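chain below, 247 aa
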Amino acid sequence: MNTVLITGCSSGYGMATAQRFLDEGCNVIATMRTPRADVLPRSERLRVLALDVTDSESIAATVQSAGPIDVLVNNAGIGAVGAFEATPMPITRELFETNTFGVMAMTQAVVPQMRARRSGVIVNVTSSSTLAAMPLAAVYTASKSAIEGFTGSLALELDFFGVRVKLVQPGYGPSTAFTSNGVARMAGLIPPEYHAFAEPIMNSFGQPAAVTTPQDVADVVYLAATDTSERLRFPAGADAVALAHSQ
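prediction:
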């Protein structure tokens, strides 16, 4: 494993995953919308590049600058929690643009070089919300579930060319910036009619029985990237593992 490109590295899972691959001796290209040199410790094996996975020109420029990519980790994602009835379609489209179409676009940009070399790994990071139905997460779950189906089909398609495709399903991680970054997006998504229903659910988010840490996800992404079996799905975090085992 030589060069790993990871999307969404400004915080949380992406940052921890970049560090894990660096610790394993890999060359890492850590991407984020607004590059920050202080996000990760300096290393001669680290490059930080600007990338907006919703912008085709940004994707093309980043992939060209990256050169040969041995592992692509599609980690970038955004979230929103709220009643579907109150979720404006522009917010729905915003989630799909990043969580679904952004993953597809990045994958499509990298597949040709992997296919030509007949080697490579693509790891798509989804969510434990795909493992069991969860209230107030209809749009988010839909955007991630689409990638579950996409990844399963793609794994069969690219296996012929020696390219492996894997899924990592993180559990709930309230300590990451993912939740705080979605606060403005979620404003007004729980109208008064839903308060009685939503209050105990939202309270449980603050006191979860089990949580997933960035290191949990980083470790499982590395496991998935180095796995040479036919295994497709890798839950990450105690809560995600429990959900996966309950299916």
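Strands lie at 3-6, 27-32, 46-50, 71-74, 121-125, 164-170, 233-236. Residues 89-117 form the longest helix (29 residues).
thats it, cya
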